[in-house]
Specification:
The protein is an alpha/beta fold and 483 residues long. The protein has helices at residues 3-19, 23-37, 45-55, 61-72, 75-104, 140-152, 169-178, 195-204, 217-224, 228-241, 263-271, 297-313, 365-369, 372-380, 399-407, 420-444, 460-466, 468-478, and strands at 111-114, 157-160, 183-188, 207-212, 247-252, 276-281, 317-320, 338-341, 347-348, 355-356, 410-411. The protein has a nine-stranded mixed beta sheet. A two-stranded antiparallel sheet has the order 10-11. One of its GO terms (molecular function) is catalytic activity.
Length: 483
């Protein structure tokens, strides 16, 4: 550990030691301290400005959520999350990532998604992971090596997908234990969480489960099987009783909107201890996909507005992987902020896009990030200047097909390879229908005028001249705690 990391972790540990007793009073002081430490740091000024506003507004619902997290979650887990996520994954990690980006001219991710196994104890309708079959696994040694390579590049945040990752419980806990400086998140159907596993989570402190639900009992059991909803609720209650963090993952389709964001559903999730939610747009991936589950333009517009309403009124933080593209300047795949490694070792640019020219059993992670397929992403991002149309597959028909064919990437679906032309065709009508609505929404919002280049926003010099001073001024004005 370097001097900078040690000093930051020691300071945050000291700060956290006194906010636990009175977060309402001391969270503003902690944020003021972080802003002081980062005064000359240009990393993440936008999020810091937003968080600073929240912690100094006692009436803000997100302020209440932060205080609830401090009260509800085991203090040792809160401390670990701050050290590993705030310090390592962001402050320390970002600096390392930038050095690799500059040296190799490639994308370097903030997080890596990986499938420990393709096996699953459920078979959900429309699940993209089901296309891989159930016989593939990354060995413990391979998972460990991915993390070691990632940390060398500044990646301290890892997300497990699948398959059902908790089929590999013991190996996942071993990795948490060995890499105690990292944060591990896992998407899971929740049916394998029991009291014994909750105790393991309390022991390692750096494992965060995200449980999949599709709305109420009828909607969840329709997609995932009879009785699954009750098992998920039981898992939530076990986690809640043990003061462990809980997130949910929700796939929205033409069949479960608006129930999946109803007040009744959101309030029930909050009552079971859920603190955050990932919302994912249904993707028609795989030869057995059901395009009729794609939301209409009107339904997606409803989700756009409803997620923002929930964020401003409820004590839960929802994120919409597709509709929040405006906050991340478009597509984050291809290593720009993340990429996906399947259970066969293939490096997919996106968890939803299964075409690759690299495998970890033949290339290093860095070699994969410099491969033709990943460089196509870097060259062409953002795929649209309207970041409500971020995806080269879903909203920009033909772009993915052109990239895949230009580098002769292959389908990584080992059960039933899907021609990229077929996937493109399934999305063409959707892209056309969504485009007009997306353009109207974009025009109504207030945005920095992004340029259509892989530099995303503007030159670094222009950003530091025009945008950064305003954000830093806002941070300074809001950073003095209220007495």
């Amino acid at each position: 550990m370097g001097i900078k990391e040690f000093a930051a972790q020691a300071s945050i540990s000291t700060a956290l030691s006194y906010i636990n007793g009175n977060p309402e009073k001391n969270l503003p002081r902690l944020m003021s301290f972080i802003n002081t430490v980062m005064k000359n740091d240009t990393s993440f000024p936008g999020p810091r400005a937003a968080i600073t506003r929240v912690v100094n507004d006692s009436d803000n619902n997100m302020n209440h959520l932060l205080c609830n997290i401090i009260h509800d979650i085991d203090p040792s887990i809160v401390k670990t999350a701050f050290n590993n996520f705030v310090v390592n994954a962001n402050l320390v990690g970002w600096e390392k990532q930038q050095k690799v980006r500059q040296e190799y001219g490639c994308n370097v991710p903030w997080t890596i998604l990986m499938d420990p196994t393709s096996a699953c104890n459920l078979h959900c309708t429309g699940c993209w992971a089901a296309e891989y079959g159930n016989k593939l696994n990354l060995s413990y040694e391979e998972l460990d090596d991915i993390i070691e390579q990632g940390k060398d590049m500044g990646v301290y945040f890892y997300i497990y997908t699948g398959g059902e990752p908790l089929v590999r419980k013991k190996d996942l806990m071993r990795l948490c234990e060995k890499h105690s400086d990292c944060i591990f998140m896992s998407f899971t159907n929740g049916t394998l969480i029991d009291e014994e596993f909750a105790q393991e989570m309390l022991r390692v402190k750096n494992f965060f489960p995200v449980l999949s639900v599709e709305g109420d009992m009828d909607a969840t059991d329709f997609r995932r099987g009879d009785g699954v909803y009750s098992k998920v609720i039981q898992a939530m209650d076990i986690l809640h009783e043990n003061h462990l963090p809980i997130g949910i993952s929700c796939c929205y389709t033409s069949k479960n909107i608006p129930s999946i964001v109803s007040d009744e559903f959101i309030d029930e999730m909050i009552s079971h201890g859920v603190k955050y939610a990932w919302y994912f747009h249904y993707m028609p991936v795989g030869n057995d996909a059901a395009p009729e589950l794609l939301p209409s333009a009107k339904q997606r517009e409803y989700m756009y507005n409803r997620i923002r309403e929930i964020r401003s009124t409820k004590e839960i933080f929802p994120m919409d992987f597709q509709n929040d593209g405006e906050y991340l300047q478009g597509c984050i795949a291809g290593g720009r902020r993340y990429f996906h490694i399947n259970a066969n070792g293939d490096m997919d640019p996106c968890v939803f896009i299964h075409y690759s020219d690299s495998n970890i059993r033949k290339k290093s992670i860095l070699e994969g990030l410099c491969s033709p397929m990943f460089m196509q992403y870097r060259k062409n991002q953002p795929f649209n200047s309207n970041h409500l149309k971020p995806c080269p597959m879903l909203e920009n028909a033909g772009v993915l097909e052109e990239m895949v064919n230009s580098v002769n990437a292959h389908s990584t679906d080992l059960e039933s390879p899907e021609p990229v032309e077929s996937l493109t065709e399934k999305c063409r009508t959707y892209a056309k229908n969504w485009s007009e609505t997306a353009d109207d929404l974009w025009k109504k919002s207030h945005h920095i005028p992004y340029k259509e280049t892989h530099e995303y926003v503007m030159s670094r010099a222009q950003y530091e001249k025009e945008i950064l001073p305003k954000l830093n001024k806002e941070i300074e004005e809001n950073s003095q705690p209220k007495v």
